[in-house]
Every structure is written in structure tokens, then in C-alpha cells.
Amino acid sequence: MLLREGLVRLLADGGIETVAVVGDGPGLVRAVHDQRPDLALVDVRMPPTHTDEGLRAALEARAGQPGLPILVLSQYVEESYATELLSGGSAAMGYLLKERVADVADFLDAMRRVAAGGTVIDPEVVVQLLSRRTREDPLHLLTARERDVLALMAEGRSNTAIAARLGVSEGAVEKHISGIFTKFGLEPAADDHRRVLAVLTFLGR
Predict the structure, then answer these.
(1) Helical segments of 48-122, H only
(2) Which CATH superfamily groups domain 1-122?
(3) Where does the record place the modification 4-aspartylphosphate (predicted)?
(4) Contacts of 117 (CB under 8 A, 6+ apart)
(5) Which residue spans within the chain are E strands per DSSP?
(6) Which of 57, 74, 136, 170 could bridge 25 with an S-S bond, Cβ 3.0-4.6 Å?
(7) pLDDT for 22-33, tens place per residue?
């Protein structure tokens, strides 16, 4: 309850209106159906078992409202949850650790990026996904700089933001992304978004 009310005040201070506050999965599904929000901000753990009810409710809500932007918050890094959340289509999806809320500006930016159709993955999740890859994984075809670029792509960063973070030109970022596409075998196609497919490959689809 305290976390929910605190978030409502934080969002209000950031110019974001909260149209509903709920305490369980069924309440979330109903609120999404009734309010048709621009974004659902969801805790992974909800009553009654406080395991993955929030994630399940988020996926159910999205099934009822295709394309619903969802940003899930978790206390700990749980790679399987992040992967499952994004496996049905990663547009307008995000997964962050609750500690990221402490950096209010970055947190609000993440919410806005997801609401606009972007994908945001917590940097700590990115680190753990990188660390558990085997030598046979396509990720190991990438150079160190390409892995850096892909990790920032997975966080939902634009080419401009990636260039600023790495201290390189946007042209260099585009070159690295092209290399990632080539090494992952992602050819241009009218019906596929190669940037999203590259992130899904990174997540271990």
C-alpha cells in the first residue's frame, strides 16, 4: 500500500496521471479493461502467493488489450520473468528492478519510452543475461563493442542515446548495429523489426 501510494505521488509530481490503483491481479485486469490506460505499471509479486501473480495478470491484461504498454517492477533479477514478459512481442514492454525508482528522472523516462512503444530492460538483467551465455551462443560472434551496443539496445536506448553513452558517433553505432544484424542472420524484411529481433535473440528466444 505504501509503495503504491508513494508511486502515485511520484508520478503526479512528474506530470503523469494515475487512473486506477489496485492490489491484486484480477483488479489489474479489470482496471485495464475499464480505464484503457496508456501504460500499466505492475509489480511482479501480488497476492495471494506473492510469486508471479502480477506478471500473469499483466499478460492477461495485454491479451485483452493488445499492444497495452506494460512496465513490470521486480525486487530481484528474475531472468525467466523478463524473458516470458517479452516473448509474446517486446514492443511497449519493460522490466525494471524496484531500486530504479530511486532515480526518478530515469524511471519516468523509462515509463515514457515504454508508453511510446519502446522496450526497456533493467541493466542488471542485461548483465546477468550476458554472463550466462555459452560459447555456442550467437552472442559470442559479436565484438565487445557490439555487445555493448546490443546491451543498450535491450535497455531501450535510441541510437543517439547509445552514441552518447559510449562516446562514439551515431554513424559508428549504426555500423555496429548492422554488424549485429549480420552476425545474427537478421536480413531486412517488411514484416520484421530487426532491432526487436536482435534483442529477442539476446534474451535467448
Answers:
(1) 53-64, 79-87, 104-115
(2) Response regulator (3.40.50.2300)
(3) 43
(4) 69, 91, 92
(5) 40-43, 70-74, 93-97, 119-121
(6) 57
(7) 999 999 999 999
